[in-house]
Amino acid sequence: MTEQTLPIAIIGAGPVGLAAAAHLIERGENPIVFEAGESVGANIRNWQHVRLFSPWEFTVDQAAVRLLEAQGWQMPPLKDLPTGRDLIERYMLPFAEIESVRGHIQLSAKVVAISRENIDKMKDTGRETAPFVLHVVYGDGREDFIQARAVIDASGTWDTPNPLGSGGLPAIGEKRQADHIFYGIPDVLDTYRERYANKRVLVVGSGHSAINALLELARLKEDAPDTRIYWAMRGKNLKQVYGGEADDALPARGQLGTRIKGYVDAQDIQIVSPFRVRELRTTDQGIAVIGETPNGQETVYVDEIITATGSRPDLAMLREMRLDLDPSLESTRALGPMIDPNIHSCGTVRPHGEAELRQPEKDFYIVGMKSYGRAPTFLLATGYEQVRSVVAALVGDWEAARDVQLNLPETGVCSSDSGDGGSCCGTGVNQAVPLGASLINLTNIPVLSNVLQPIALQVAARDCGCEDSCCSDGVKSTTCGCDTACCN
Ligand SMILES: Cc1cc2nc3c(=O)[nH]c(=O)nc-3n(C[C@H](O)[C@H](O)[C@H](O)COP(=O)(O)OP(=O)(O)OC[C@H]3O[C@@H](n4cnc5c(N)ncnc54)[C@H](O)[C@@H]3O)c2cc1C
Fold this sequence. Notes:
Blueprint: E1 8-11, H1 15-26, E2 32-34, H2 42-45, H3 62-69, H4 84-96, H5 99-102, E3 105-106, E4 109-116, E5 132-138, E6 143-148, E7 150-153, E8 181-183, H6 193-196, E9 200-204, H7 208-223, E10 228-232, H8 238-242, H9 251-265, E11 269-272, E12 276-283, E13 286-293, E14 296-302, E15 304-307, H10 336-339, H11 354-357, E16 364-366, H12 380-394, H13 398-402
Parallel strand pairs: 1-2, 1-7, 2-3, 7-16, 8-15, 9-10, 9-15, 10-11
Antiparallel strand pairs: 4-5, 5-6, 12-13, 13-14
Helix pairs in contact: 1-3, 1-12, 7-9
The structure holds flavin-adenine dinucleotide.
The site of flavin-adenine dinucleotide has 38 residues, from α1, α2, β4, α7 and α12.
């Protein structure tokens, strides 16, 4: 095969990898998709019980839909919210089973490394024209080197969760407690019911995954009232954790915050914050979780820990690729300023495509969840537009590659540390959350040495007086709420 007739390789048959395949097939290309799992959507299977906050209209790719509809497939109701299982069974599996698609997907095929044929990372000569070589390990133990003319890495980040310890390091003793730590969102109402019912459970993290786990635990507590739920997080800005609530342009995403706030206010969930996990120890009273707090080291005793502290990209397999990544997020560099939670948390991500995703390694692209690195705000609609643009570029349709369009629903809450003091927007969400109602009641939490004191997270309510120029990336917003971080 000549370089031009080699396939384009896609790593990962998640929703974004499959979308890339759909666009390539539509353009008459011959993609080859490598999926480490036994089925498409293997990562989503891990959280299939969770309902997405995006309705169907934002969770399907248009090229995949066109191919599906040609087979008589019916789009689910646009405004309904799929669960992860729905997304796999009603969209991804039917797509993967289309006759013209099936042959392009290899299951139980894990890519462990990528390079250029006979050219290591240091060598320049002939690099740009040399085929890529993917080292693939199959489920039955076979290994192979597969050539490709371009590579689209859509392998996500779910497989490499962040550790429990703060500072990005595992907590002391974290590995020893592995049997009592779940990374992700366990199905506590079904598969893992026995594991969590009437137990003391600590959830660590402050994003949507943590909130999803907490909401399910709160429902479990209704049937198993002795379940004790503790929620530890590093920060103390609960307003930011609750998100835009009613102002979120995706109502289901906003409701996550509203519902969790209800359980916190009712003290069904006890917040331990700010708390930076340092060490885990086995004791007669259960697992001692020792953390740093403003009052010094404190200890919470629990039976189980759920870690929802985000995930990070697996860069090991890309060791021979010439990459340009954002130094803090490990995202594609150009995306960094648009998605950096240190800068803002708007749902408004500037439209981006091939140009922003381009790497020094010609014809190699990181897309989907992995393109965001460690940043938590990725949405499928973003990934679908990314691969539409990247595929257009790979087949030489530069006009379509440059014509990126993305209209993302905003989160309804915006923080900006841009330092100009006035870059946050307002739409009437101009009061800080009444955190007095959420004062942490730690008196029931058994502690080792010090008695934890309720930590007042008082934020003065005031008018922000913000206008509508929300984010430091200059994207105008009409739904971002004022945030304490940017309106003082
Ligand atoms: C609980 C939860 C809820 C979410 N809700 C929403 C929502 O409502 N709306 C929204 O827009 N987004 C949502 N997201 C975010 C995002 O859309 C999803 O994480 C989505 O699955 C990302 O798609 P992806 O294709 O980039 O990666 P993934 O779905 O993670 O797919 C990556 C695939 O690559 C495979 N793989 C990994 N490594 C290799 C390898 N080395 N070789 C071969 N294959 C490999 C994996 O097995 C997997 O199948 C949610 C995320 C989570 C975790």
